[in-house]
Design a protein that fits this description.
Rossmann fold; 12% strand; globular
């Protein structure tokens, strides 16, 4: 079987993590989400905690701009920012796990980073607002208000991170092969849809 790389972009609370795991298990291939941080840490020598603090975070925040305006107080050798170091480590981790063979990767601009590889299937998951709220409340043990705040904050962060690192618009249908509303099909139904698409 030829190598296949399934990348999953997702709205927060749409079930991307659970669906990605189910697809990977069904195909018996590795799954990477937060696991990429461990790969990036091992291969770059940067700490896992450091990489986690910059994981899918926007680069154009007020704090970031303020610091950059002060001669980049957080810069490393040759004026490279810590944020650039973290992003480079993650980019290289995505390529590294793909070099090892078929896999499912959630987030981290993987759809863009692997765009030239044959066998790439780019998926984007969204869901109705109320469904996402209930999903986040149940999964994270938070109130409705807290769930809504997390959804707004993290969707905005992911969109900003993606736009900065790819020069493309996050969630734009034309940049994916398959877009699914998980609130219509459920976690299992969405995983089955992705598997059917991949197998055909």
């Amino acid at each position: 079987m030829a190598e296949i790389y399934i990348t999953i972009g997702r709205q927060f609370g749409s079930g991307g993590r659970e669906i990605g795991r189910k697809v990977a298990e069904a195909l018996e291939i590795p799954y990477y989400d937060k696991e990429l941080l461990a790969v990036a840490a091992e291969e770059s020598g940067l700490s896992h905690q450091f990489l986690e603090s910059y994981d899918e975070k926007p680069t154009n925040s007020f704090f970031y701009s303020l610091v950059m305006g002060q001669q980049n107080l957080l810069s490393g050798p040759h004026g490279v920012t810590v944020e650039q170091l973290a992003a480079k480590a993650q980019r290289e981790a995505v390529q590294s796990v793909a070099d090892k063979g078929s896999c499912v990767i959630v987030g981290r601009c993987a759809d863009y980073l692997l765009r030239d590889r044959p066998g790439l299937v780019r998926v984007f998951l969204c869901a109705d607002w109320d469904w996402r709220v209930k999903h986040v409340m149940a999964r994270d043990g938070v109130t409705e208000k807290e769930a809504e705040e997390k959804m707004r904050k993290l969707d905005k962060a992911r969109a900003s991170y993606y736009a900065f690192h790819t020069d493309r618009k996050w969630s734009a249908a034309e940049t994916y092969d398959l877009c699914i509303n998980t609130s219509r099909k459920g976690i299992d139904g969405t995983a089955e849809t992705i598997l059917h698409f991949v197998q055909k």
